[in-house]
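Explain this record to help learners:
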Amino acid sequence: MRLAVQISSLVGIFMSSQVLMATEAKEFEYPELLVSPSASERLAVEAKRENKARWSAHWAIQASALTTLMAGITSNGDPGKATSNGDEPGSKMAARAATYVGAFWLAGSAVMSATYTPYQTGLNGLKGLANGSKKEKLAYERYAEEAIYAPSMVATVMKWASVVSNAGASGMVASNGKNPMTKFMGGVGVAGSLLPLLFEHQWNEVYRFQGEYKKRIYGPVASVNMSVIPRGDAMAALTNVGIEF
């Protein structure tokens, strides 16, 4: 009887899953066309917002860079720890590193804000594409998804590069400084370098939300139920699994 129950359960799971998978896969053949809002709609919305928010898009990186720059300026006036061979104190090198790194991210993010408009560029790229047949609509939405993905990757690279460089430069200031204020500002710079990790960039957020909307089209197991049916002299358990795609 145990063997009959186990075999019947496995057969029930397999058959139910296969039938539902075939039915749902046929209905949800192209999830890109079913997600709401679609990638192209989201791209159009973000393109309209982009011009207003472009100067504040990188605020976490800019705030991080500012704390590093302040640490560098403070360290510049620190005499540093004396060296036995008369070389330049490490605080001077740390001051230059923190100043250059902080200034680089402030200037670089400002240039990005002024020149890089990924959503508007992506939307402009869709204008020449056909959007009539099902195949054309599918290609249209997939290109829109690529336009949403591209700035997210840029933001991710910027985030980690900013964290590593600002934390490293501010850490140098804290470890090589002699005055308490220099050490304190170096610590502030290290803490500030974590801001891009604590606050998600808008480009990452847009891509993440769009991905979550798409995943809801083909979710996990929707329902599981069991029933007992007679089979010869024994009773067999039948398991039905409903799966959403």
Q: What stands out?
A: Residues 1-28 have pLDDT under 50 and may be disordered. Residues 39-81+88-218 form one domain.
